[in-house]
Amino acid sequence: MFKKLIYNTLCLSVVLFMFSCSDETKMLDREQFGFEYFPIEVGKYWVYRYSETLVKGQGSNVETTERFVREEITDLFVDAVGDTVYTLQRSQSNTLDGSYQVTDVWTSRIDETTATRTEENLTFVKMIFPFSVGTTWSGNLFDELTTVNVAEESVWVYKDWGDYEVKAKGISQEVEGQMYNEVTTIEQANFESEIERRYAVEQYAPEIGLIKKEMIILDTQCACPGETWIEKAEAGFTLTQTLVDHN
Known about the structure:
Layout: H1 2-33, E1 45-56, E2 61-78, E3 84-93, E4 101-110, E5 114-119, E6 122-128, E7 136-137, E8 148-150, E9 153-155, E10 164-175, E11 178-192, E12 196-205, E13 209-219, H2 229-232, E14 235-246
Antiparallel strand pairs: 1-2, 1-14, 2-3, 3-4, 4-5, 5-6, 7-10, 8-9, 10-11, 11-12, 12-13, 13-14
């Protein structure tokens, strides 16, 4: 009888320990790992304002445009290695409430260690888990000299990007008049020479995802002291992407 009591007590202790570990893991997932910054499920959508400046004609023309891009997770499938992959349909309109036309279909996925997104056959590791301020990783899973057509010019958009780095976590950020708390800032690139400027930063809010993105991709052959990058640029673009709607 006494041995049976000890056995039952030990079994109960093991069960309680397992539940305790499970609860602790869930707490760590949310508070330390960062999964909540990359929410992903079929039916989720985000609408962004895209403000873009294109350098055309070897710098002879600079054109600024604005459009709205809707991203929606429309489906999922299991790939050859058993990972769940989400289909991300992108559409755009000249106005927020206008008619949106589908332009691209990308994919996205998340697992215990990474959140990735494939855009035009280029795969980006958007986050690694867990992360904190100062965490770095190789974010571009492709050749940095991959060319991209920008206003009829071939540009090495991702040249000299280097590692991604978490620059801030838990900050407040206002975007399009909306205040977001516990925002994480990820710097993807920040390189400058006399003839090249590469800058890319993304900001994420918990349970929402990407709320703001900024890119400066500009090239020139002119040092041109005293001129701004837009004034001396011969190819490239600048982009500000801000969240205006989501579910």
